[in-house]
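A quick aside before the break. I want you to see a complete sequence-to-structure record at least once, exactly as it would be stored in a machine-readable document. Don't worry about memorizing anything.
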Amino acid sequence: MHPRKDVKAAVQRLGLSAEAGRLRRWTELYGQKLGVTEAKSADPAIKAVEAWHEAYGTLMVHVHAEYDDERDETHALLRDRLLSPYEDAANEARRAEQRARSASAKRKAQAEPEPDLS
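That is the input. The structure line, written in tokens, reads:
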């Protein structure tokens, strides 16, 4: 089985489809904020840039997983710099979801008929 199909099947089996979708949207927002998702697919440099970002991202994930000393100010600063664009995008996505839920609830409340109390 193709690795992507394995991952998709595992995500569905574990009931994580909604969370995976949310993570995908946050990743897209993060890419937009960094400006790495705006290039046209016909640009010959896009594959090299994407490969570099993927390799660098993977390296950072491994470094962070292996070394996480809260007392190390340099590491804490690095972690903050690497995570802040992601956290900003995640917070904005959460706010947008909340606004959409609030707007939906408001529309639903306005659409419900008033009870006849006479």
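Two observations worth writing down. Helices lie at 3-13, 17-34, 46-66, 73-111. The chain has a mean pLDDT of 78. We'll return to this after the break.
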